Amino acid sequence: MAQEKKSGLPFFNLIAVIVSVVIGWLLYSFVLGASSNFVGGSNENQPANGSILGTMYKGGFIVPILIAVLLIVLTFTIERLLTIMSAKGKGSVEAFVRRVRELLAAGDLDTAIAECDKQRGSVANVVRSGLVKFEQVEKEGSLDKEAKIAAIQKSLEEATALELPMLSKNLVIISTCASIATLVGLLGTVSGMIKAFAAMAQAGAPDANKLATGISEALVNTFLGILAATLGIIFYNLFNSIIDSITFGMDEAGFSIVQTYSSTHKEK
User: In terms of pLDDT, which residue wins out, 187 or 139?
Assistant: First the structure.
């Protein structure tokens, strides 16, 4: 099952990127470039009075690229949100860890394992792995106390190593989009300013239409680039903060399991 997830996720990533690019191009061509957004019904003319969509269309060929980047950020933000919320389990991680610690202190191992099954999620999976190993080493008469503690710690570390990659997967896509959005937007800004200055440099009176088009291209690309980058940075940092909280819950619960075993079992 884990292998299926691992091989299926990159395919989802590829499809998500392709679909975002296609949707970006369709929005640019048929929504922003709709005839109703322009004077005379042609997108070759200036935007109709007050038409924001027409103004955005005049941002040029970089606009659909930036729309695609923005859609990619939103797509993987939703995907990460669903995955991380699932990893947190059904209830509060802090309350779950506190409950497990209380049950361990009371020596009620079976109920603690049942709490893990009820909570679910990454933290519960790690804790359950440690508790099951806790139960197993208690029955091992051939191991000394230090070996049993080492076995519990190893089980916790292995379970954590399996859970953490799932939490951070695809965050690199969000951070990459946040980085390139600013650069792509800047490229559109420079392109628009070049056109605007070229229109001003014409002999005689400047070409007002070309000047307006150049300024529109510069401003629209700047806006879309900053918007995509800002959202990417916000969600990337937000998810990292949540993952740190989940990781802390894993570490705290694992430490409690080891400490409980160490304090309740004397060296034989």
Answer: 187
